[in-house]
Input
Amino acid sequence: MPRPFPSRRWTVLLAVAGGLATETAFPAKSWWPMAYVGIALILLALRRDSVPWGWFAGFLAGLGFFLPHLWWANEAVGEPIGWIALSVAEAAMVGVFGAAWVLVRRIPAVARSRVLQVLAVAVLWVAVEQVRARWPFGGFPWGTLAFSQTDAPLLRLASVGSTVLVSAAVVVIGALLAQALVHLRGWRVGSASAVLLLAAALTFAPWLVPLGTRAESGTIRVGAVQGNVPEQGAEAVSQARAVTANHAAGTQALLDHVAPGELDLVLWPESAADIDPRTDAEVAATVDAAAQSIGAPILLGTQRYLTDPEDPDVRQRYNEMILWEPGAGSQVSYAKQHPVPFGEYMPHRDFFRTFTSAVDLITVDMLAGTEMGLVPVQIERLGRTVPIAVGICFEVAYDELIRESVVAGGELIVIPTNNASFGLTQESSQQLAMSRFRAVEHGRAVVHVSTVGVSGIISPNGVVMESTGHYTAEQMIERLPLRTSLTVSDRLGQWPALAVGVLAAAAVLAGVVASVGRARERRRGARRPRGRGRR
Output
């Protein structure tokens, strides 16, 4: 067997460097070509033929990526244990990819074919991404490779195959770069040049994918209010009345640019009124005064508290977006379907308390809503009800949640969020990039509105039409197209993810079989008696 390359020392360096390089492709840096470079370095680190070492190299690459990528988790919790635990858990999944790749390339057909190697490694990477987006505790899609490509030509592939196709394309290009580097190491300049040309073609060819942006069922004029919070940090929740007053003042500021009744809808972010205006007269008066002055309904975030029916001493809550009609209050709401574990509710509280008292920072667990994120809004100017797809905060990261609302009729996407807990970290810009991805994936305009920023209004082709600063009080006004056609990605639904999962499982099984067969051959060779030499 040829001498393994690289050495273990170089494996460690390449793996960590690959993870760090990949992270720079994401906001706030957004150096999108570095995703290809990072994947190439990670694959070079995985050339040793050892499953445990493959896991370890993948794990190191994952740490190099997730520790800086999820730094905002440290800001939110106020101590490093949550940030480190989350980063280690996600990095372990990258380790699974590394181990699986070592197994799969033992399949004789894969070992002989560079084309199959490129395709197989892309399938395995995407399959692991899809698993960690769903498991454990409902999954965590943050750091999906596709979200690094919102400024790249590959973004257009989102309309064809969602995160599955875009992430796969990133890995394919990265794998081609790795092959080119191997060719160059062997001074095979011609082969390296051919592979690099193919990688360049795959990088820029998606510019040819058409994207629909025109209005198909009229337009809607919206105002979005980023009210800011009195102070940075999670303590802003205790100042809920001041936050609501800030958003009411921001709504009044819209009147510097429009007359009453000229807007069809005003959007406030998640937690803009954490004291429920449906049950609190003072907050209701503040919200209604703002709605009546602007002459439009307000879609706003609030919290609905209730008592646990099994334990009257335990309180629970729903994170909701409600539609407030001027002078009429609210009859329409959407409850967040995917609360964040360890952020909005604490699973296995007693167990995790043995590691840190930070679990008790979550004093009231959030319940999951059961209805899809589709809010009907009566638009008087159009003379009809417009269904709006809504995903609250981290829900923008989950493929299925936004897709189901669009397929059910959503003509515009609204992503309300509260980023006050994350300070000046890159979490806000990472989340805005996900909204840009969803715009292209579903061919819908997106309004991404935050309490503290960064907020943005995005056209159906992913272009940010208007955006705000960080920790500022600002407003945005745009006329947006309402669209009803479904993209190829919407029509395919979860089939690409399922297909990738089946292929990956079959490949790993074949790799195990190949490994067992190879081990048997080695044992037989070791037992075979040596022939006698000639006299």
